[in-house]
C-alpha cells in the first residue's frame, strides 16, 4: 500500500513538473472567490496555501497577511513561486515541497487555509479525506478554510459521466477521469476526481470539518456549475 501511494505521488509530481512552465504562463489571474476570502482575513493572519501551484493566490495572500505558507508537490512550481517572491522582494513566505495528505506544518498553527482546485487531483478517496483531515489538523480552533473542487456535472464533462454511469458503474471510483494538458504543444494526462456536490460535502464532513457555506460557481461553463467552493470550520 505504501509503495502504491509512493508510486502515485511520484507520477503526480512528474506530471506537474512537466507542465509547470506552461501552467504558469496560462494561469496568472487570481480567482475572485480566493481574493474575496483573503480580504476577509485579519492582517495578522498566518495562512497556508496547500497545493499553491504558481503562487497566483499565495502571493496576494502574502501581501495581505502577516505570513503565508506555500505547499506543493511540484518542485518546479515551487521554483517558479520562489522566483516571483524574489522579484517582488516578498519575504514573509515559506515554501514546502510536500504532498497535501502529509503536511509539514504544526498542529493548530494556521489561522486560515486555502486548498484550491487541488483536492480533485489526489487519487483515492481515502487519500483525499486524509488531505482534508490535514486541513483540520493544522487549523487553529477559530480558523477557517476555503476548499474548492471541479464539479463532475459541468458542461464539458457532463455527457461523458452520464455515459459512464450506465457503462462503467462499479469500475473504480465514479468521478475519476484523465484531463489532458495540451497547451504549448504538450499532451500530458492529469488525474482528476470530479465531484458531485453531495460527495464534496460528504468527504469534508468525513474529515471532521464543519461546513459554513458551499457555493456553486460557473467559471467556464455556461449552463451548469463547474466549481464548488466550501468555507469550512473545525
Record field, number of beta strands: 9
Shape: globular
Q: What is the helix/strand order?
A: HHEHEHEEHEHEEHEE
Regions with pLDDT < 50 over 5+ consecutive residues?
A: none
Structure commentary:
With 234 residues, this protein is of the alpha/beta class. The chain has a single domain, classed as Rossmann fold (3-Layer(aba) Sandwich), CATH 3.40.50. Helices cover 38% and strands 26% of the residues. It has seven helices and nine strands, in the order ααβαβαββαβαββαββ. The strands form two sheets. A seven-stranded mixed sheet has the order 3-2-1-4-5-9-8, sandwiched between helices. Strands 6-7 form a two-stranded antiparallel ribbon. Helix 1 runs parallel beside helix 4. The longest helix has 25 residues. The protein is globular, with a radius of gyration of 17 Å. It starts with a helix and ends with a strand.
Per-chain topology:
Elements: H1 2-26, H2 32-40, E1 46-50, H3 58-64, E2 67-72, H4 75-87, E3 93-97, E4 110-115, H5 125-138, E5 139-150, H6 158-167, E6 176-181, E7 188-193, H7 197-206, E8 210-217, E9 227-233
Parallel strand pairs: 1-2, 1-4, 2-3, 4-5
Antiparallel strand pairs: 5-9, 6-7, 8-9
Helix pairs in contact: 1-4
Give structural attributes:
Rossmann fold, seven-stranded mixed β-sheet, two-stranded antiparallel sheet, alpha/beta, 234 residues
Amino acid at each position: 500500500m505504501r509503495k502504491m501511494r509512493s508510486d502515485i505521488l511520484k507520477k503526480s509530481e512528474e506530471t506537474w513538473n512537466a507542465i509547470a512552465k506552461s501552467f504558469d504562463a496560462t494561469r496568472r489571474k487570481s480567482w475572485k472567490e480566493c481574493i474575496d476570502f483573503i480580504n476577509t482575513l485579519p492582517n495578522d493572519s498566518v495562512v497556508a496555501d496547500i497545493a499553491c501551484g504558481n503562487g497566483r493566490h499565495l502571493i496576494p495572500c502574502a501581501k495581505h497577511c502577516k505570513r503565508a505558507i506555500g505547499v506543493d508537490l511540484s518542485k518546479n512550481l515551487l521554483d517558479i513561486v520562489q522566483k516571483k517572491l524574489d522579484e517582488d522582494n516578498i519575504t514573509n513566505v515559506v515554501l514546502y515541497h510536500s504532498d497535501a495528505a502529509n503536511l509539514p506544518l504544526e498542529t493548530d498553527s494556521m489561522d486560515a487555509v486555502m486548498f484550491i482546485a487541488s483536492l480533485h487531483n489526489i487519487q483515492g478517496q481515502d487519500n483525499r479525506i486524509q488531505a482534508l483531515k490535514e486541513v483540520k489538523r493544522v487549523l487553529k480552533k477559530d480558523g477557517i478554510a476555503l476548499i474548492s473542487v471541479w464539479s463532475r456535472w459541468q458542461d464539458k464533462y457532463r455527457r461523458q459521466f452520464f455515459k459512464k454511469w450506465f457503462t462503467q458503474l462499479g469500475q473504480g471510483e465514479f468521478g475519476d477521469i484523465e484531463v489532458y494538458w495540451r497547451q504549448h504543444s504538450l499532451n500530458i494526462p492529469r488525474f482528476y476526481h470530479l465531484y458531485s456536490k453531495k460527495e464534496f460535502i460528504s468527504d469534508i464532513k468525513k474529515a471532521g470539518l464543519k461546513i459554513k457555506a458551499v457555493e456553486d460557481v460557473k467559471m467556464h461553463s455556461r449552463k451548469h456549475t463547474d466549481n464548488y467552493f466550501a468555507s469550512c470550520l473545525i
